[in-house]
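hey all, quick one before standup. I had two proteins in the batch that finished overnight and I want to keep them in one place so we stop losing track of which output belongs to which input. First protein below, input sequence then structure tokens straight from the run.
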Amino acid sequence: LATVRDMLESAFSQIALILLVAAVVGFVANLLRQPLIVAYILVGILLGPAFLGLVSAGEEIELLAKFGIAILLFLVGLKLDISLIRSTGLVALTTGVAQVFITMGIGFLIVLAWGFEWIPALYVALALAFSSTIIIIKVLSDRRELDQLHGQIAIGVLIVQDILVIIAMVVIASMGSADGSTEPTSLWVTLIGSVVFLAVVALLARYAIPRLLSVLVRSQELTLLFGVGWAMSLAGASQILGLSMEIGAFVAGVALASTPYRESLSARMVSLRDIMILFFFIELGTSLTFEDAGSQLVLAIVLSVVVLIVKPLIVMVVMGVLGYRSKVSFKAGFALAQISEFSLILIALGYSLGQVDSEILSLVTLVAIITITLSTYFILYSEKLYEMAAPFLRRFDRFDTQDEEREGSQAHPFDAIVIGAGRLGSSVVRGMQDKGGRLLVVDQDPRALRAVRGEGVETLFGDISDPDFAASLPLNEADAVICTVHERSTNLVLLETLNRFDFDGHICLTAMDEPTAKMLAENENVRVIKPLKMAANRIVDALPEMRER
């Protein structure tokens, strides 16, 4: 090991080793159907001082970790869709707030009873209350459950939690030190600076950013560069004002959340987030020593039981009172049965401010590993678990069917998703509009989208040739997908995405040549559109009329 350490003196070689080991461990985690977050933390522990001690490039990894956190919070702000809370009604707000505060109360009392001071106990209680946005969206998306009622409620609760966690981070950042002492003058400067900061961002988001983006979106590289630059700039400005850089990154995302380009921007940045956020979890893992692992294990198991069992029960009780059936509340509750990546960020923030020590950091990380690992299987096998518990749970069902009616009414709000709003696409849209069709039209040309926007037509800006964006389409909400784009690669990317998510609706793809048409037609669910052949047939059919003239 000493020889290997000598070979890994440079920060570059250490980061290269981290990426290599993360890829290997991540592959194993994927085979075990585990989120990569667990793999990243384990890599940090393995390469850190707790075991091999091969990573010592603390400053470089810390910088990359901050970059990853900023991108993560930017994307959370970008996805902050308040309308989703309204669409799921009172249940998201009521369940979200009740679950957070009840879980916090239970966790706080347990940690206090274990002999900890109130500030560390409050941090641990906060960490237990929040659930993982990344994990829940990924697993539910893979299972095609995001658009089912329990999935929508879970996402609505996550939005409420995201708002609460940002408030918690603002409070923590304002405390400034372990004893909470801060100069009154500094507080006033921070408060006034924050108001001005938010006002300037609001004005830019209202008047300047949409116009700038309408020009930049023509280039994928410039769009990505703008997104990263905007997030980092506001994160830096927030830090200068005395707030945490996390707040600025989140505000940067919220500022763009109302623009029509947010889905496209999010799809282009999600891969960057996945790469950069691994350094935060690596840094977290390398900072753990587990010197008190034996004494922490019992408490970690107790707290994990609170997260894995008590938290879902809280959700089920609240949703039951609101009239939801046991199956919906069971699936929504167990989707939330883990602690969040933000829990780890909160604890790391408290650790950097000196408000908690390494013991609390190790404890919460241990709870994260346990709950994230087990909750993934809870979600994957939620149907079987419910069947086992159904005879008992159904006794508490109320005799109304509001949740079934809501789920049925939300099943397929779109008759078709139409890709491309050019000449062929706009003709398809007009024809389906005349028949009363409900459509979602996708294109990367804002002018084309404006031209087809109308009654019964929703529009979404984005590049369908980007696999990440294609995967973000609401496929579960549509009866058909029609691609009118001529490029062969675009149709193939879309077909691969539809096959990956087992889309069982009608699929219409466009081919400009016979080899492409044959390739697409190999899939029995695909109907091939041949614009050139259709045009030629119309010309041939019109020839007799032309001769008569």
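OK second protein, same deal, sequence then tokens:
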Amino acid sequence: MINMDNKMGKEIINNYRKYFNEINSGELYEAENTLKSIVKKEEAGEGYLNARRYLGMLYLEMENFDKAISELSMIVKIKEATKKKKFRNLAKECPEGFDKEEEERGHLAWVYHDLGMAYLGKADCEMAEKYLLKAYDISKDKKNIFRNDLGWLYYKWNKPEEAIEKFKASVNQGDNSGFPHFYLGLAEIKAGRLVSAKEWLNEAISIFDTNAHDPYDKSKRIFYELMKASALNNLGRIEMDNGEYRKSKRLFLEGLAICERQECQEYIKGLSPRRKTKESITIAALHNNLGLLHYKQGFLDEAEKEYIAALKFEELPETYNNLAVVYHEKGVKEKAESYLKNALRLDSQTEVARANLNRLVGGGANWWDWWFKPGTSGSSLHKGEWPRRIVGSFLVFALLVMVCSMMCTSFSGSEISVLGISLLSFGEHGVNTVQEDIYSYKVGDNSTSRVRETTSTKTTTTTTAKNGSNLIDKITIAALLFFFLVHPQIKIFSFGAAKFEMETASISGSPMCCAGTPSS
């Protein structure tokens, strides 16, 4: 503990209290300046690391991931270089919602944790895993929190089985906060096990309901109500996928009713940018999925209204994609293309939007450009476009060979091998060979001349018929090849019941783990 008789020490403690008050009031930029002043004073004095750690945490909450990584990495370098610089024990000064760490390794565990979450914010999953594992390894009493965040990393990394393993371990270790149950529901959805996902989400909702009845802590109550809204959104997704549209609509509307309550809106306004983004995504997801439900029922105008409402809360690639689908069905191609490009601007890895844009642009583009020029990904071919280019090249080559074969058949009676099919030659020598073979059985007979003449006539007739048949076959194959080459210029086409259709997308509530979150 700091010597309170020390004038500098008292001033630093007062600055920390000022910082905590600014954080609780949502004055983030004032809190940043306060922390910077503490860093300077501590570096000039005993060199404690708390202020730099809180500065990294503050940048993480402000979603300035580069600055967060810079500050937190500096602490890691300092700790690796020397054991002298340590963290203060500020447990008595910390208000509720802050981790009241008293031990050195507890502070360091949070440094590793926040560094991992900052890398996750930059979508660098390998670095995020490295530091989250370090946090988990050295932590003594925050195992469930760090394990849950590792699970969330694996979920975002598209590794649902690893995520499920982490969340189940937290449940087995007595985490009754409802978070691992909720995340298990999301991971089971991603793994395609919807029945299990429903069970976990319903259990999470039950726990959230219990925690939301705390009469003495309004912030805690609202927090868990908003978590329930996110769970309702994902439960509604499952019911919608199962064709239970009435149940799905009821769940979406119940979630929106929670989020739209005045006290919930006021609570959201006071959150840090990162936590505010989380709640905005939940509301946008509810509107998006309700719009998707209307779309599935054939109500395009209602779907459009919900998608537009979703974008007022948060820009999501799925919502832009779904708006594009609506405008495509309404015949407004320009708007559809614009919204798909917006989806890819937000997330270039949104495959459903990329596939839809290729369909849309391909549906009206020059067929040669569609097969052989780069798409929306930039000046070079996207890796997913190489197979299309190869197929296009094969079709062009096959069509040219087929046309040459048709010309040879028409003018000289010969044929060319194409598409792996070997065709025989029916030229003059071939006919004579057949005639001589037949004649050899009739030598010495007075009717030889008549047999040769008849055989020749039959052979010529057979050859002509065969050439005609082959020519028709080749024309048919050439027509099919030509159709496949130019089909991108056909806006909508069908083979039987299969028709050109752009895909829609639903989304999860996308929860984010953050410092100060109520936990078990």
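Flagging for whoever picks this up: The mean pLDDT is 78. The longest strand covers residues 494-495.
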